Amino acid sequence: MELTKDDVRDIALLARIGVTDEEIISYQKDMSSVLQYFDKLQEVDTDGVEEIGHITGVTNVYRKDAEDEMSEEGKKMIMDNVPQKKDGYIKVKSVL
């Protein structure tokens, strides 16, 4: 697939970058070669190839989302250091 100069201008506009006429010619060649490489990849036979999400096989390890018990003394120590409280809760500024 060969990109036109107008295609490159449109892409630059969408990316909100300014390009000169010389850069357009350079980007036209570079971006067209990338798209041609993707066309080549479409020709590769991938039947029987297992899909993978990560090439190293590493998986994320998450901690259990569990509530930890805290003593009343610990809760009191935290509340003593809070700048504002309301009805036993920590008062914070509005987010929205």
Describe this structure in words.
The chain has a domain at about 5-40: Histone, subunit A. It has a two-stranded antiparallel sheet with strand order 1-2. It is built from three helices and two strands. Helix 1 (about 5-15) crosses helix 2 (about 20-40). The protein has helices at about 5-15, 20-40, 70-80; strands at about 85, 90. The model has no long low-confidence stretch (mean pLDDT about 90). Helices cover about 45% and strands about 5% of the residues. By secondary structure, the protein is mainly α.
Short description:
The protein is 44% helix and 4% strand. It is built from three helices and two strands, in the order αααββ.
CATH class of the domain at 5-42: Mainly Alpha
Strand content: under 5%
Structural class estimated from helices and strands: mainly alpha
Q: How does the major sheet shape up? A: 2 strands, antiparallel
Which terms summarize this structure?
mainly alpha; two-stranded antiparallel ribbon; 96 residues; Histone, subunit A; 2 strands; 3 helices; 44% helix
Secondary-structure blueprint:
Elements: H1 5-15, H2 21-42, H3 72-80, E1 85-86, E2 89-90
Antiparallel strand pairs: 1-2
